[in-house]
Specification:
By secondary structure, the protein is an alpha+beta fold. Helix content is about 50%, strand content about 20%. It has six helices and seven strands.
Length: about 170
Amino acid sequence: MHDLIRARQPEGPAHEWAQHVEFRAHRRTIIQRRTAPVRLDVVIGEAALRRPAGSSAMMAKQLRHLADVPGQLPHVTVRVLPFAAGFPGGVSLPPFVILGFGETTPGEPVEPPVVYLEAVVGNLYLEKPEDTAKYHEAHAHLVRAALDEADSRQLLRQVAREYERGL
């Protein structure tokens, strides 16, 4: 993780790299905690699986981990959007995260959702209901076009084997 962050901002100060690593480690902690873990629903484009970030051995290990996590953490779903799906909703989307903050009563959010976009020049948080609604709709398009969980696990393991064979 540290190497990827440093590659993104090679001139950045080392303390900022450490902060990014710490932030990502904290995200992992809140997903893996036993009490009230955060629900995570991920759709990963097949291109991200096939674009190496590190050694082949590291890629294989990461992909196997992605395949195994849903079986270990039932509140985590991982689906792969295959190349064959094209552009669901008609557009190519940058990576985005929809942050929900729970509900006080059924249907009543504690706080309105926020969409987080990470960019080269800084991060962006979208809070307007019409903006977050568009990202909810985009996520729904991605989920419908993605492989189901079982087929996603199978593809993750297949690509991991390809990395292990050096393809």
